[in-house]
Task: inverse folding
DNA sequence: CTAATACCCTATCGGGTTAGTAGGATAATA
DNA sequence: TATTATCCTACTAACCCGATAGGGTATTAG
């Protein structure tokens, strides 16, 4: 299951990508438009900022804005920040590899074999899909 | 993340698929071979039985056995029984569709658009992978 | 018939995560 | 200086996961 955190995060990002200008948009505005709890959204946008996706501006007329061009933001980046590793099992993760305690040999492990395929395909999709494409 | 339930289930199924004869194998035997908690494995095999994947035999010399030929068991079936829907979001699920409360229009929803692709690809892999292939 | 074996079933439980809330600190602007 | 809006920490209720406990029931060996 996709977490609501990721779901809301993607929605907020595409909302910003659809904006004509690069002017900051307040949490409240995004929250209202996308039907997301203000406080929850606040924490999501903050982590996106800390990870270099968003910039922010305080005070009147402030809010959040995209730092990069939407077509330069692949979904791999967004997913890894919000949802964590792409792989469904640590033993097939590229960035967060971890050996299974129970599994003596990955070469003969059925789960490993199956999940490698899933990871490769998901990775391909996330890599080839940018924020710009989702915004259209 | 893939649940341990599914992970262990797949391991147990491939263990059975690798067996030469169709003789029942006891929970204890599989548990020992695959390093899985006996009681936990017990509940997993029971649900696999209830869903028509496994048969069982009680008493001495009893255990679990595959009902069908391994090459007639696609991973879609196994995944749906143990892990639940293939889709990461209910609004793109084929068998368990559910509309999102917050989303006014699926046609313009970025999450929907992205997750449809993921679902299609995962589905293709699970459908084309049988127990027999994983066992080799 | 009886005891041993091994599946069948329900209930429970600790620990961790998730989704959301509360409340104030800090910075920018009018 | 008041207002706006982000920043930050802490907290909590609800939920799910993995595992365990403790029997009940069917089958088979002797």
Result:
């Amino acid at each position: 299951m996709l977490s609501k955190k990721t779901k809301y995060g993607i929605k907020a990002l595409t909302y910003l990508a659809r904006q004509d200008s690069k002017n900051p948009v307040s949490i409240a505005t995004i929250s209202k438009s996308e039907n997301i709890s203000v406080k929850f959204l606040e924490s999501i946008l903050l982590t996106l900022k800390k990870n270099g996706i968003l910039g922010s501006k305080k005070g009147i007329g402030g809010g959040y804005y995209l730092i990069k061009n939407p077509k330069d933001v692949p979904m791999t980046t967004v997913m890894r920040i919000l949802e964590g590793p792409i792989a469904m099992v640590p033993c097939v993760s590229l960035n967060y590899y971890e050996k299974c305690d129970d599994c003596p040999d990955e070469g003969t492990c059925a789960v490993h074999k199956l999940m490698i395929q899933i990871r490769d395909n998901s990775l391909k999709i996330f890599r080839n899909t940018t924020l710009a494409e989702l915004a259209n």
